């Protein structure tokens, strides 16, 4: 990490430390919450209306609820040629496939990035969430890398993307601790494969369905500073570049939590699984435990629960995030899910 950031609060490390503390504390059992489903939905709606601050923690389940699925129709439409030739079964696993050359590998990544970063999610769950909290004091921490919060209207000053961004490259040279916007490159690489823009100005498969699985050699991305190879700015190991923007967001998250310490805070967890629970889930438990005025809410499909120690200050809803957010946003008490 650059010494330029040494005096800035590191919200990422702070939250992980809270998560580690939570792991040690919450080992005496878990609860699926109290009350009926409808009671919890109405309680969550009230908490959103009355909380002094809302800390939103979002994981992959929220983007899945928004229709950004990594298998099924989207995969078959945009990656069927890669699937047939290489036996790739979904978008996620395609990111790890040992492609035969850089031209093919970067053709894959151009599609991977474009269809998960530079288009709006098929369902409006992010926009619905924004409308729900836009007039509330809120902050978002997320492990998602698809940029959908900003596309939906969230202020980037209220966002902390902890694990990177599909829209950024970094150099393989560890001395270069910078990131580089890749939008212009992605658009050129999509055109080079034969994708065409539809009436909504979104790249789509051409009518004849003929696509190239390679980009020209001259399009392989190189670092503009030293000509080194590029890679994705996605956290997978200690080579992940935490650039200036990342550190500003990390410090902003730390500052937000400090400013609202002891207040009526709603820790709203959306679609967080058990891949990286120490970043959001466990810290949310710990911060709710420490602040007796705080409330923890967990919305997830088949993975909704809370520690027994905070059961009475928790709202647990098992279900699709998009449906829950739509209900809470509804002015009609008759609209049930």
Description:
With 337 residues, this protein is an alpha/beta fold. The protein has 2 domains: 7-65 and 122-162 and 242-329, Rossmann fold, CATH 3.40.50.1220; 73-120 and 183-220, no CATH class. The protein has 12 helices and 13 strands. It has helices spanning 11-25, 37-50, 60-65, 73-86, 91-94, 102-117, 125-133, 148-151, 183-193, 244-259, 281-290, 321-329; strands spanning 30-31, 53-58, 138-142, 159-161, 164-171, 179-181, 196-197, 203-204, 230-234, 265-270, 295-300, 306-307, 314-318. The strands form 4 sheets. A 6-stranded parallel β-sheet has the order 4-3-2-10-11-13, sandwiched between helices. The protein has a 3-stranded antiparallel β-sheet with strand order 6-5-9, covered by helices on one side. Strand 7 (196-197) and strand 8 (203-204) form a beta hairpin. The radius of gyration is 21 Å and the shape is globular. The N and C termini lie far apart (47 Å). The mean pLDDT is 94.
């Amino acid at each position: 990490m650059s010494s330029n950031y040494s005096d800035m609060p590191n919200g990422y490390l702070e939250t992980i430390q809270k998560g580690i503390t939570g792991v040690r504390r919450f080992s005496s059992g878990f609860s699926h919450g109290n009350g009926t489903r409808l009671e919890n939905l109405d309680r969550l709606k009230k908490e959103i209306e009355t909380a002094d601050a809302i800390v939103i923690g979002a994981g992959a389940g929220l983007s899945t609820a928004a229709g950004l699925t990594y298998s099924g129709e989207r995969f078959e439409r945009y990656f069927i040629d890669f699937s047939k030739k290489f036996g790739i079964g979904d978008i996620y696993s395609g990111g790890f496939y040992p492609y035969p050359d850089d031209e093919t590998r970067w053709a894959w990544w151009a599609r991977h990035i474009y269809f998960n970063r530079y288009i709006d999610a098929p369902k409006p769950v992010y926009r619905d969430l924004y409308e729900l909290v836009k007039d509330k004091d809120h902050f978002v921490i997320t492990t998602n890398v698809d940029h959908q919060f900003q596309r939906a209207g969230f202020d980037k000053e209220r966002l902390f993307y902890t694990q990177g961004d599909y829209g950024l490259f970094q150099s393989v040279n560890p001395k270069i601790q910078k990131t580089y916007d890749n939008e212009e490159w992605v658009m050129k690489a999509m055109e080079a494969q034969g994708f065409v823009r539809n009436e909504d100005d979104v790249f789509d498969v051409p009518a004849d369905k003929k696509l190239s699985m390679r980009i020209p050699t001259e399009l392989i991305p190189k670092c503009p500073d030293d000509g080194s190879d590029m890679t994705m700015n996605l956290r997978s190991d200690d080579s992940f570049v935490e650039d200036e923007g990342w550190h500003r967001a990390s410090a902003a998250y730390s500052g937000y939590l400090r400013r609202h310490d002891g207040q009526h805070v709603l820790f709203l967890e959306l679609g967080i699984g058990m891949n990286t629970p120490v970043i959001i889930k466990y810290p949310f438990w710990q911060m709710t435990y420490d602040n007796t005025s705080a409330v923890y809410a967990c919305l997830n499909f088949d993975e909704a629960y809370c520690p027994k120690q905070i059961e009475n200050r928790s709202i647990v809803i098992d279900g699709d995030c998009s449906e829950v957010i739509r209900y809470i946003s509804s002015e009609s008490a008759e609209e049930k899910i």
